[in-house]
Amino acid sequence: MTLTEVARAIAMKQVSSHEVTRALLHRIAQWQPHLNGFMAIEAEAALKAAEQADAALAAGEVRGPLHGVPLAHKDMYYDAGKVVTCGSLIRRDYVATTTSTALQRLKDAGQVRLGALHMAEFAYGPTGHNSHYGPVRNPWNVAHITGGSSSGSGSAVAARLTFAALGSDTGGSIRMPANFCGVTGLKVTWGRISRAGAMPLSQSLDTVGPLAQTAEDCALLLALMAGPDPEDPTASAEPVADYVAATKGSLKGLKIGVPATFYVDDLDSEVARVLDETIAVLKREGADIVKVELPDQRQLQAASQLVLAVEAAAFHKRWLIERPQDYGAQVLMRLQNGLAVPAITYLEAMRWRGPALAAHHAATAGVDAVIAPVSPVPPPTIAESDVGGNANAPAVLQRLTLFTRPVNYLGLPSLVVPSGFTGSGLPVGMQLIGRAFDEATLLTIGAAFQRATDYHAKVPKLPS
């Protein structure tokens, strides 16, 4: 079942929260040795919470749209009284004293906590490697990466170990796992969802968002989390749309832009094939497909990396001085690089954002969304992308994030939908890039595509 379907089934008492939770825990026990997707599995507490949810429902108490639905989230969302490791040694025993706003809104809607999902150390890695706790593995082929940093979220949703999961996206960390694991992932407009109580990485790039089976599921979660928050002054008061209603819309009358360069250059042949097939489906469903000439995306990518490096280093400065030995080698190197960037260079990159966004708006004025690959290549193997064990790995990593970072720099929303498979059975997704605070249009397009295809419904087989 999708998140939307299981929430409805529990609400209508067709199945109990306890039955659903027990079934997921059984599946987690089967898959976890193969995937390493969970940081913590809280079976006893989850079953108890599910029983309480069932008792409440029997008494006529409905807590919200997620009443009794078991979920697990990336281990960087503070949950009062719970250990939140952030995928690190430094926070291995950190017990949160507050609960993140995004997580609290899902709890208020009735979710049951299954545990915590694995992630890249401090959310600073695009592959799913973690030198402290081992890599998360792709359920479609365990030799391959999941993408990061929301590696456990992508892997667990794909293997149907949770109906959905929170991730975070600073340079592609929701979109890459969604792409490589064959699930739907939504990177929201900067400020659309409060970041209070979520581990920071880069203050001007970080976004909170969901990974789930479908665009409809993402719409449900976005509707629950979006909106202003007194705990986060950067959370926007922009009106919250009816995102679930948006998923019922048609593609007729919508214009989708295909970039003339950059996102279509030097693509792996199978990624190029899936892009062409996706465009054909959108066109058949009524969308008008046009070419768009975007400004230089490599400049945006470089600026995004620079901003991320400086802001991450600033957040980690004290630990870099006091506990450098407790970082993994790759994360330590990236953080130290951030300390070496001159303040003037950082300020120039920040000041250029306004003109860059204006240029993007001018270039895309005639379209409702832009379609592009998430990555120019299918998921590489864990060995190919291991910086510690492969001399070519840095080049592999640089290429992975080529198509995601520009969106973060501009602060725009992007929805990834599963769009096909390689000949060897690995998922390929496409991202839809929208206007600021227009997640609704992206969800309309994504849901229409999913009504016309079944890639999102494919489920990987348990390794033997």
TrEMBL record:
UniProt cross-references to Gene3D superfamilies, sorted A to Z: Amidase signature (AS) domain (3.90.1300.10)
InterPro entries per record: Amidase (IPR000120), Amidase_CS (IPR020556), Amidase_dom (IPR023631), AS_sf (IPR036928)
All copies of domain Amidase, residue ranges: 19-443
Tree of life domain: Bacteria
SUPFAM superfamilies according to UniProt: Amidase signature (AS) enzymes
Stored PANTHER family: AMIDASE AMID-RELATED, TRANSAMIDASE
Cited function: Hydrolyzes indole-3-acetamide (IAM) into indole-3-acetic acid (IAA).
Name used for this protein in its record: Indoleacetamide hydrolase
